[in-house]
Amino acid sequence: MASKGAGIRTSLMTGVSYMIPFVTAGGILIALSFAVGGYEGFKVQGSVADYLMRIGGTAFGLMVPVLAGFIAFSIADRPGIAPGFIAGQIAVTVGAGFLGGIIGGLIAGYVANWIKNWPVPKGLSRLMPVLIIPLVASLIVGLLMLLVIGQPVKALMDALTNWLRGMSTVNRVILGIILGLMMAFDMGGPVNKVAYTFGLSMISAGIFEPHAAIMAAGMTPPLGMALATVLAPKKYTEREIEAGKTAWIMGISFITEGAIPFAAADPLRVIPSIMTGSAVAGALSMAFGCTLRAPHGGIFVVPMIGRPLMYLVALIAGTVVTAVMVNLLKKEVTAEVKAADAA
User: Fold this and answer.
1) pTM for the whole thing?
2) How confident is residue 164, by pLDDT bands cut at 50, 70 and 90?
3) If pLDDT is split at 50, 70 and 90, which confidence band does 19 have?
4) How many whole angstroms separate alpha carbon 312 and alpha carbon 270?
5) What gap in Å lies between CA 35 and CA 286, rounded to an integer?
6) Residue-wise over 206-222: b if at least 16 C-beta within 10 A, else e?
7) What are the angstrom distances between the C-alpha of 262 and each of 192, 208, 244, 279?
8) In terms of Cα–Cα distance, which of 57, 61, 71, 123 is closest to 93?
9) Are 244 and 322 in contact (CB under 8 A)?
10) Angle at Cα 104 formed by Cα 129 and Cα 91, nearest 5°?
């Protein structure tokens, strides 16, 4: 079972990794459309905002098929791509969203992998990867998505959407804390990606608060560690101080992985600190009612954020909490460690 779970986790990570460029390109183009024409400017046909919105919307619309297609690819290699993309597109069509795309991609991959192991005559073996596997797997997963899986998953997504829309302020803060903890826990790993994908699904459902909290929480770990190296340089090696300079750029760009060098060197002090800071940033963002329509972009899409000044307050608060906490836990670097680092 552990091996199976690890395989599913790897497949999900593969799908998300291939999806992110579409998210980034599409989301920033949509944000630029809002920047150029406001939230209604894209409705003027032939305007710059209209073209930006159409291009960005096309890229954004490919997210679920790409996610499902490359989940299936990770499981079954090239024969899984076609059924995976088809499953993802059906998930979009029936309103099952990201959850439907994930389920469809996994089913497509495992069905394609199963068909790959069919005993067939030599004359058919060359047709298996280019014709038989994509055709049969697409038919099977397509029927499952349309007749069995699509509607229940859509009902689940609708229920989640309605629950989020009806949340009280207290519950919103709790959700922000949970999302913040998830974003910082493994800094770009599977738990981080689950939170990120949840935020994207909420954007597609027209709920923009969770992803604002997610981006604030994802920016906080590298920014907090960068600030920590400035506030207490004697507690860090020269290499960590240099990494801190890079972490400023990665933090404002919403690249949580910028905190990994610090966490790898001192996980017991750094990981609890960055999780605390991210929880603060996520909670404050939700409490302030900040919204985010762009799925990526970091500080560069702050003008597209609802209540941007309060959002910056949440981000700064999380950053300061991270830096102060980690520096309270850390001790000064000894001469021996400095010598080993220099060597």
Assistant:
1) 0.67
2) low
3) confident
4) 23
5) 23
6) ebbbbbbbbbbbbbbbb
7) 17, 31, 9, 19
8) 61
9) no
10) 120
